[in-house]
Write a structure and sequence with these properties.
about 240 residues, alpha/beta, Rossmann fold, two-stranded antiparallel sheet, 10 helices
Length: about 240
């Protein structure tokens, strides 16, 4: 144990950790993020949508406008922060510029905030939202899978990285409206019976893991695939979520 602590200390000295919010060396040394930078992030608080976790403007409302208009088939979702300017920059670095180490901060905060909720739900497995193989080759990794494995390790819950497969390259979702998003995602995902069979345990509850939740189209598409293949309950956890109405 002492050897591991010593090794970590040496690594922190040689390769000082950078703050996922400001991008500079995290102060004080050894922290995953600068304490003052963490205060800049807008945490999801009540009132929030009881379905997707988006913040809403009235305690009298149960659901955001999005969830009132659509019938999402997942049971419930959780998110840490509002997807604002700070988090857009942070996630872009994590997602597109090789800052995999930022995941340690995200995972720590997710477990701190929602660890007990996740344990109460008791999902059989975490499943990361897949990305197309061309994107994975470009980036070198699937950011959602890094998150899923980090959370799974902390909470001792298995991760099935390939239970869902993205077998169709789609247009970027941010360029499309709601109807176009759903159409864009039709047949984009597939269920791996091989991965399911290799697990050799019944899977009843799944918690999907992704970096950002916006309209919920991607989460809904993945949920529907899982439900069609025998999964009974689907939940999700994400780092950020867009603002509700």
């Amino acid at each position: 144990m002492r050897e591991k602590v010593l090794l970590k200390t040496i690594i922190d000295i040689i390769y000082p950790r950078r703050c996922p919010v400001c991008g500079d060396i995290a102060i004080p040394r050894g922290e995953l993020a600068c304490p003052l930078c963490k205060l800049k992030l807008v945490a999801i608080e009540e009132p929030r949508c009881k379905k997707c976790s988006k913040p809403i403007d009235s305690e009298e409302k149960e659901f955001c406008l999005d969830c009132e208009r659509k019938h999402h088939h997942y049971i419930k979702g959780y998110a840490l922060w509002i997807y604002d300017t700070h988090m857009k920059k942070s996630i872009a670095e994590f997602k597109f510029h090789g800052k995999r180490e930022y995941s340690e901060f995200y995972v720590e905060e997710i477990v701190k905030r929602y660890g007990k909720d996740i344990q109460r739900i008791a999902p059989d497995v975490f499943v990361s939202i897949p990305i197309h193989k061309t994107k994975q080759l470009q980036r070198g990794y699937n950011q959602a899978d890094i998150l899923a494995k980090g959370i799974g390790k902390e909470l001792n819950i298995p991760v099935l990285s390939n239970l869902l497969i993205r077998d169709k390259k789609t247009l970027p979702q941010k360029q499309l409206n709601d109807k176009e998003r759903l159409k864009n995602l039709e047949k984009a995902f597939a269920f791996s019976k091989e991965e399911n069979d290799n697990y050799q345990k019944p899977i009843r509850k799944v918690m999907l893991v992704d970096d950002i939740y916006t309209t919920g189209s991607t989460m809904e598409a993945c949920t529907n695939i899982l439900l069609k293949n025998g999964i009974e309950e689907v939940y999700f956890i994400s780092i950020c979520i867009g603002k509700g109405f």
